[in-house]
Write a structure and sequence with these properties.
The complex is a heterotrimer of chains A (about 300), B (about 325) and C (about 375). Chain A has about 300 residues and is an all-alpha fold. Chain A is about 75% helix and about 5% strand. Classes of the chains: A mainly alpha (about 300), B mainly alpha (about 325), C alpha/beta (about 375).
């Protein structure tokens, strides 16, 4: 039962991570842009959704406004600023996006204050569901899993079955060739950036009710997102999904079972110390191991 | 490479720094001697990263942990020296603890690079980040040396009889001397055969490999030297604050060092000093005026990216290949 | 006047500094950036609110408050302290929120002969072996809150408790404090990483261990997250949750809302405490800031109140360090928390109250005083202090 519950937890974490990582990997793959500030859209989505939900009482409205706001801000930032650093190389991009994190955090704090804000779970999903005898799981988390799967499916459909998707895959695979073949890269880039921002914001809005909506929440998640992108392969949405599930599984099962597993053959006080520490580090060990054997990730986009 | 502007800049900078303590004492602003000392310590760390990134072409997020490891080495050795029952032999002399910090930085750098160099570019960045975090959690969980609460040092390292580092002015001059030596070493290194090979590797690694150079080994040594520099910077910071904590190893610290490096001008001789000074001084000045200083810092960084894209140091020298 | 008297007079003049203080400069070093800056701001608000009531004075001295940012980072904190000490020449340092910054700055304050009035939790080293005449605490020693909860949980006849705290030294210390006072069995000890956001894994572990109560030490965003998720998982009704003071403080209630109802914590102060000093404080706070004070606002207020009384006692002559210290030790003021006096290690000896989260008459989620768990509680490290 515990294992089943933890598996659902891993699935939920993995899907949300996928939404964030998908945007990041696309932006990196297609535009060769290192965007450290990607987590800021996640934060923006959570804050906007929380505010709109509190004012209007409608979750649907909150989501729509959050997505629109993030996409809007994202495209604006891309058009005004990031466009100018595409050719400058990763170093300039690191500098600019680092600066954007500072500005975003401080602006959010200016507008919403420094304390975490509350976003309530919608009443209709506030309870738990008995999935099996002895296992009741939060309805809202189940909703997250469902929404995550739906969005993942939509994303795959778009990437694989639409013209936009073809442009995206072409751009990820070989940017110059795509441009030579007539793809309007400027507009594509702006769109992709906006899409990535919207996906991130969606994750932020969905997670808002269970996580604390606070300044700097983006930084905590961006590291995991980068790890996913690296493990999965840059530019690959399938890779991002695989990477997210793997990372979420390692993190969840590590936290859940490592301390007690260690306790089986180590003295108790060492196990209590070492267990949580090891599970924290396990993601990084995993990433180092994967890169050791597959230096370009599990499913790189470029052939 | 034309050196005129760089040399002049260096001379002016050193003269100004040498004159800083007497001016500060005269104007009753001794506080700024401490600020300058901190800038110099960070300048050594940033120059190390500059070596690794600007000349070695390796984008790394591990420097924070190497700096922190150096700081902890100094602190731990100092603390162990005053305990009765010790696990490690301790020492309070700077002649032991500071080289020890450099050695630890170099060895850890060697270890990290030996594995990370199997990858390149963004992947290299992420693996160095992974190792950075592993070291961070290691120090974080070491309760015997304070863990998250950090570890305090009772006194600064002993340097020479009669030259007490407790005196902020003395400490400043020592830091300045070390920075000058490090910069000189960096300069000679870059212009040596080793440096030229490294430059070649940075520009076109496959070609250098075709020419028969073991590029892996060159990059490894470069990273280790960077680690030693970071370790030394850590030793200085530990002495300055008489305190070390795992926060020194956090990835945000590594990120800040990277930002300072880029700000100062990657590959520029004085990039380390300029980057550290610009970042820390802006932070110091702005935070005294407004709580929202991070917005100002962000705007300043963006301005530098757009209008001084090769960093501040490049404002003085012509374009390099 | 003979030679001896003249010499004595000269000696007396030489031992007090030649200047007399005409104002008192307070260095308020706290966390102004980052997610934990909200509660730091509340502390400053409490401090400044008190100063409003005295017309910007402590005793008869006008006050200059210089606020600085430690960025929740010992290196930056140390740097900011040096600015306060060397450039601004503060007389008193207060406001620091986090123990790693406290431990980095305290020795420097002592060396500069600046009184450090720690208005937040006292780390065990400073309460014990490294206590110092220049270091005072107006809040409580870290373990006190856990010991109070441990007592209360034992009183409520819980026999099998699950423990949870973040995996860092302070977190483990809090659990040790609880275990010192709690007399039953431990079902499981869970240590998530600091800054963890999603506790679904840990909550599942708690459920699987089947305890009859759970003790949680968390603060800030972590506490908000945990409380919300715990309630959503349906456990809030099944397995009662007991927290340290910070776990269910005002900022957490604002973030978690109704999820926190029914949860119990132990604190040395609560907004509904029935004494004249507190009633005055709460009324003034609500009028000025339009919201209930939190534990952190109270800590700021009470620190100012202590300083006010001490400066009055020495009639403004704070330059005489010994006398000022004695006045601080005397602590002759009415604290809003109730009975107050300093122990030999200059950490408060005070009462601890159990409080439960309930809805008040206006439908707001607040902490309601339940019962005084222990009176005149001294911290566990006082005996290690050699002062």
């Amino acid at each position: 039962m515990l294992f089943l519950e933890q598996t659902l937890n891993a699935l939920q974490l993995g899907l949300m991570l996928f939404l964030i990582a998908a945007g990041l990997t696309l932006v990196f793959g297609i535009m060769d842009l290192v965007n450290l500030a990607h987590g800021s859209f996640y934060m923006l989505g959570a804050y906007v959704a929380a505010t709109v939900a509190a004012k209007s009482g409608s979750f649907a409205a909150a989501f729509l406004v959050a997505l629109a706001a993030a996409a809007g801000v994202g495209m604006l930032v891309e058009w005004l600023l990031l466009r100018r650093v595409y050719g400058r190389g990763h170093l300039s991009q690191v500098l600019v996006t680092f600066a954007l994190i500072l500005i975003a955090n401080e602006t959010v704090r200016w507008i919403w204050g420094a304390n975490p804000i509350d976003m309530g779970v919608p009443r209709s999903l506030a309870g738990s569901v008995a999935l099996a005898p002895g296992l009741s799981y939060s309805e809202y988390r189940l909703a997250i899993i469902v929404a995550g799967l739906a969005l993942a499916a939509a994303l795959f459909w778009m990437v694989n079955c639409t013209r936009l998707g073809i442009w995206i895959r072409a751009g990820a695979s070989n940017r110059d060739m795509a441009r030579a073949l007539g793809v309007d890269t400027s507009r594509l880039f702006t769109l992709v950036f906006g899409l990535g921002a919207a996906l991130s914001a969606f994750a932020g809005a969905m997670l808002g009710p269970i996580l604390s909506v606070q300044v700097g929440m983006g930084e905590a998640i961006i590291i995991l997102a980068f790890v996913v992108v690296v493990i999965g392969g840059i530019g690959s949405v399938r890779g991002a999904l695989l990477g997210s599930i793997v990372v979420a599984a390692v993190d969840t099962y590590g936290r859940a079972f490592l301390p007690s597993a260690l306790g089986a053959f180590l003295p108790l006080d060492i196990a209590t110390h070492l267990g949580p520490g090891l599970s924290q580090v396990s993601i990084f060990v995993l990433m180092a191991a994967i890169l050791f054997f597959r230096p370009r990730g599990l499913m790189p986009a470029t052939g | 490479m034309k050196l005129g502007a760089t040399w002049w800049f260096g001379i002016v900078a050193v003269v100004l720094l040498v004159l800083l303590p007497p001016i500060a004492s005269f104007t009753q602003q001794e506080f700024y001697i401490g600020v300058a000392t901190r800038v110099l310590a960070y300048a050594i760390a940033v120059s190390s990263l500059n070596l690794v990134l600007g000349h070695g072409g390796m984008l790394s997020l591990a420097q924070g942990s190497l700096l922190g490891a150096g700081a902890y080495t100094t602190a731990i050795l100092t603390v162990e020296a005053t305990k009765d029952v010790t696990f490690l032999p301790g020492a309070t002399s700077a002649w032991i603890t500071w080289p020890a910090a450099m050695l630890v930085g170099a060895l850890l750098g060697l270890a990290i690079a030996s594995i990370s160099l199997r990858t390149r570019a963004i992947f290299f960045l992420m693996i160095t980040l992974a190792f950075n975090q592993m070291l961070y959690y290691l120090f974080f969980s070491m309760k015997v040396y304070g863990g998250d609460d950090g570890l305090g040092m009772a006194a600064r390292s002993d340097l020479l009889p009669g030259l007490a580092l407790e005196n902020d002015t003395v400490f400043f001059y020592v830091a300045l001397a070390l920075f000058a030596i490090f910069t000189f070493v960096q300069h000679r290194l870059v212009h040596s055969r080793f440096g030229r090979v490294l430059e070649g590797i940075r520009i076109n690694e496959p070609r250098m490999q075709a020419l028969g150079f073991d590029t892996y080994r060159y990059k490894l040594v470069c990273f280790a030297i960077g680690g030693a520099g970071s370790g030394l910077a850590g030793a200085l910071l530990a002495n300055k604050n008489l305190f070390v904590s795992p926060g020194l190893l956090d990835w945000l610290q590594s990120g800040t060092l990277l930002v300072m490096t880029i700000l100062g001008g990657v590959g520029q001789l004085w990039g380390g000093l300029l980057g550290a000074a610009a970042y820390l001084v802006i932070e110091e000045l702005l935070s005294a005026y407004t709580q929202r200083w991070q917005i100002g810092l962000g705007v300043a960084l963006i301005a530098v990216t757009l209008y001084a894209p090769r960093g501040l140091g490049a404002l003085f020298v012509p374009r390099r290949p | 006047m003979n030679i001896r008297t003249a010499l004595l007079a000269a000696l007396a003049l030489a031992s007090t500094p030649p200047w007399a203080a005409d104002k008192i400069t307070i260095g308020f070093l706290t966390t102004r950036t980052g997610p934990l800056s909200g509660i730091s701001g509340e502390k400053l608000e409490g401090f400044q609110l008190y100063l409003k009531t005295t017309g910007g004075k402590l005793g008869r001295l006008p006050v200059e408050v210089i606020v600085a940012d430690d960025q929740n980072n010992p290196d930056a904190g140390r740097q900011a302290f040096e600015r306060l000490a060397k450039r601004d020449r503060v007389d008193v340092l207060t406001g620091i929120m986090f123990s790693n910054v406290i431990l980095s700055v305290a020795p420097a304050a002592v060396q500069s002969k600046i009184f450090f009035i720690n208005s937040n939790v006292q780390p065990s080293e400073l309460a014990g072996e490294r206590c110092n005449p220049y270091i005072f605490n107006t809040a409580y020693q870290s373990d006190d809150t856990d010991e109070a909860v441990g007592r209360y949980v034992t009183e409520r006849a819980h026999k099998n408790v699950a423990l949870l705290a973040p995996n860092f030294p302070a977190g483990r210390d809090h659990l040790n404090g609880f275990k010192r006072a709690y007399k039953g069995a431990i079902a499981v000890e869970i240590l998530p990483k600091v800054g963890q956001l999603d506790f679904s894994v840990e909550i599942a572990q708690i459920r699987a261990a089947k305890p009859d109560a759970v003790f949680v030490f968390l603060f800030g965003g972590m506490a908000v997250n945990f409380v919300k998720q715990y309630a959503q998982a349906g456990l809030a009704k099944e397995i009662p949750l007991y927290g340290a003071a910070s776990t269910l403080e005002e900022d957490v209630l604002r973030g978690a809302g109704e999820s926190a109802l029914g949860m119990v914590s132990a604190s040395n102060w609560n907004a509904d405490l029935d004494n004249p000093a507190n009633k005055r404080f709460v009324a003034l706070h609500e009028k000025e800031y339009k919201r209930r004070p939190s534990l952190y606002s109270f800590q700021g207020w009470d620190t100012a109140a202590l300083l006010d009384a001490a400066v009055k006692d020495v009639d403004g002559k704070i330059e005489n360090r010994e006398a000022f210290r004695a006045a601080l030790r005397k602590a002759s003021f009415s604290s809003a928390r109730g009975p107050f006096k300093f122990g030999p290690n200059q950490v408060p000896i005070q009462d601890w109250y159990a409080r439960r989260v309930e809805k008040d008459a206006q439908g707001q989620v607040v902490n309601r005083y339940l019962h005084t768990v222990v009176r005149g509680h001294a911290d566990a490290y006082a005996s290690q202090c050699k002062m």
